[in-house]
Specification:
The protein has helices spanning 7-13, 21-41, 50-70, 78-94, 107-129, 145-184, 190-220. It is an all-alpha fold. The protein is globular, with a radius of gyration of 20 Å. The protein has one domain. The mean pLDDT is 84. The longest helix is centred in the last third of the chain and has 40 residues, at 145-184.
């Protein structure tokens, strides 16, 4: 939600540091994910319980999605996909807590994530196919290669832009809508808007993860 008071920003300013809101809360999400990973793995048991049980369900679910979407080769990139998905999900959800700002409501955070996927897509492509990966950009017909190359370049450049703006638009838009309704009907709107916010948080994390998997899977395929 839109917060008049950001707790962590106030805390950082006590040390006379001036850091952007989205950067402060990005660090917070990173620390939170590190803590969750530590709690889930500090005493692994054959019969899981507590945090280990929860994370095994999450990791297993993401792992199945990666294999179904990207095939067996996709398992190599599971750590990247899972990290992005969990980071976006937690970033989206903390925005529902008073005094906390969702890093994904800032275009810079989303651009960094999108560019990571964009760069990784082509790194994987060249790693898998060598310079034959360039065949993805020229198409199967030789005389159409110059036109296809331009079209493919535009399409690939549009990918990080669409990833960035989709996530930013939904998260920032939710913040603005919630602020408007809170001013109009402060006592009736928060609960349903919070529930909608949780739904949006999960959907946007899923969509970003799915598109990242599709883009990387495309670079793993042979050019036709």
């Amino acid at each position: 939600m839109v917060h008049p008071f950001l707790f962590l920003k106030w805390l950082v300013e006590q040390f006379h540091l001036h850091v952007a809101d989205h950067v402060i809360y990005t660090w917070f999400v990173m620390l939170l994910l590190t803590l969750i990973a530590f709690l889930a793995s500090r005493s692994i048991k054959k019969v899981p319980s507590g945090m280990q049980n929860l994370m095994e369900v999450v990791v297993s679910g993401v792992d199945n999605m990666v294999e179904e979407t990207m095939g067996p080769k996709g398992k190599t990139y599971f750590p990247l996909i899972a990290t992005i998905a969990l980071f976006i999900l937690i970033s989206n959800l903390i925005g529902l807590i008073p005094g906390f700002y969702p890093p994904t409501a800032n275009v810079n955070t989303n651009a960094a994530l999108a560019l990571t996927v964009f760069v990784m897509t082509h790194v994987v492509g060249f790693k898998e196919h060598g310079f034959s990966y360039l065949k993805h950009f020229i198409g199967p017909v030789a005389w159409l290669a110059p036109l296809m190359f331009v079209i493919e370049i535009i399409g690939h450049i549009a990918r990080p832009l669409s990833l960035t703006l989709r996530l930013f638009g939904n998260m920032y838009g939710h913040e603005i809508v919630l602020m408007i309704f809170l001013f109009l009907v402060p006592f009736l709107v928060p609960v349903p808007m919070m529930l909608m916010g949780v739904l949006i948080a999960f959907i946007q994390a899923f969509v970003f993860m799915l598109l990242a998997m599709i883009y990387i899977a495309g670079s793993l395929e042979e050019a036709h």
